[in-house]
Amino acid sequence: MPHCTKCGTEVPVNAQFCSSCGQPQPPAPVAAPAWQPPVAARSGMSENTAAALSYVLGWITGIIFFLIDKRPYVRFHAAQSIVTFGVLNIIRVFVAMVFGVGWMFGSHHHMGYGYAGWGSVGLGIAVLSLLGLLTFALWIYCLIKAGTGQRFELPLAGPIAKSLAGQQ
After folding, report:
1. Are 11 and 2 in contact (CB under 8 A)?
2. 45-53: which pairs have CB atoms within 8 A and are 24 or more residues apart?
3. In sequence order, what DSSP letters do the residues of 61-79 get, joined into one string?
4. Where are the domains of the chain?
């Protein structure tokens, strides 16, 4: 099914105007050519697949799909991925700095920074591990929900994502 050239809403093949934003739509194609490319090359990926893929590498794939896919469902999930996993990544870096824990759980005492004692480093590793487990569980949840076509809003990130995707 085609999408509106302005807002990305699905429109019927013979629609003259978008029912969502009123944008005039190009006329439906008259006749198909004799040869057609394979379906996969012609159809692209489904909204569910694109929405799920926007979570695969966290905020990185969120940015990619936010920029290249204009369908509202995909843009919302891409924005939610950016907000959710971007903030969790920033929190991880902040926690690591506060507890003097290096990126891969190594202390940086020998480099002249990271002045926390070994007890703090142990607590930092515990907090980072818990944060990692939470992030992983949230990542799986988002992948499954988006891939099965369920629009869901995470408590804090969802409203921000709606705003970013222009879906007030």
Report:
1. yes
2. 47/71, 47/73, 47/74, 47/149, 48/146, 48/147, 48/148, 48/149, 49/147, 50/74, 51/76, 51/77, 51/78, 51/146, 51/147, 52/77, 52/143, 52/146, 52/147
3. HHHHHHHH---HHHHHHHH
4. 1-33, 48-164
Q: Which residues are paired to 17 by β-bridges?
A: 24
Residue 16 to residue 93: CA distance in whole angstroms: 51
Phi, psi of 17 (to 5 degrees): -135, 155
pLDDT in tens, the chain (168 residues): 788 888 888 888 888 888 888 888 888 766 555 655 444 333 478 888 988 899 989 889 889 999 998 888 889 899 999 999 999 989 888 887 777 765 544 444 444 444 445 556 678 788 888 988 998 998 999 889 888 988 788 888 878 888 888 776
Cα(73)–Cα(71) distance, rounded to whole angstroms? 6
Partners of residue 24 on adjacent β-strands: 17
- 65 neighbors 53 (Cβ within 8 angstroms): yes
Q: Are 21 and 6 in contact (CB under 8 A)?
A: yes
Rounded Cα distance between 12 and 20, Å, is 12
